[in-house]
């Protein structure tokens, strides 16, 4: 899947404190939430005040430390 703001691939990143997460343009929130929900992938959209990695310019979805990172990346990569 490509980020709507810069066209780069959306890749699952890892953080020792936050676990796996993705960052992307806020305009893509609905599209990404829908994709994750349709594939049964649990996630939490950061709200900004409690964000581990987010910024005003980037939305962040966290997956939790036990998430199947390879599966999440495959689902994201299935959309071009």
Give a verbal description of the structure.
There is one protein chain. The protein has helices spanning 29-38, 69-77; strands spanning 13-15, 19-24, 44-45, 59-62. With 80 residues, it is an alpha+beta fold. The model has no long low-confidence stretch (mean pLDDT 85).
Summarize it.
The chain is built from 2 helices and 4 strands.
Label this structure with key terms.
four-stranded antiparallel β-sheet, 4 strands, single chain, alpha+beta, 2 helices, 80 residues, 19% strand
Strand order of the largest sheet: 1-2-4-3
Helix content: 10-25%
Please report which band the strand proportion falls in: under 5%, 5-15%, 15-25%, 25-35%, 35-45% or over 45%. 15-25%
Q: For the terminal residues, how far apart are their CA atoms?
A: 5 Å
Largest sheet: 4 strands, antiparallel
Instruction: Name the poorly predicted regions.
Output: none
Radius of gyration: 11 Å
Task: Spell the H/E element sequence.
Answer: EEHEEH
Structural classification? alpha+beta
Number of strands: 4
Number of helices: 2
Mean pLDDT: 85
Shape: globular
What topology emerges from the helices and strands here?
Blueprint: E1 13-15, E2 19-24, H1 29-38, E3 44-45, E4 59-62, H2 69-77
Antiparallel strand pairs: 1-2, 2-4, 3-4
């Amino acid at each position: 899947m490509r980020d709507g703001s810069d066209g780069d691939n959306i890749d699952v990143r890892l953080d020792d404190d936050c676990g796996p997460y993705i960052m992307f343009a806020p305009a893509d929130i609905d599209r990404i939430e829908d994709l994750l929900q349709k594939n049964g992938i649990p996630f939490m959209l950061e709200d900004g005040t409690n964000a581990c990695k987010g910024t005003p310019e980037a939305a962040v979805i966290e997956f939790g430390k036990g998430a199947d990172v390879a599966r999440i990346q495959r689902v994201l990569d299935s959309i071009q």
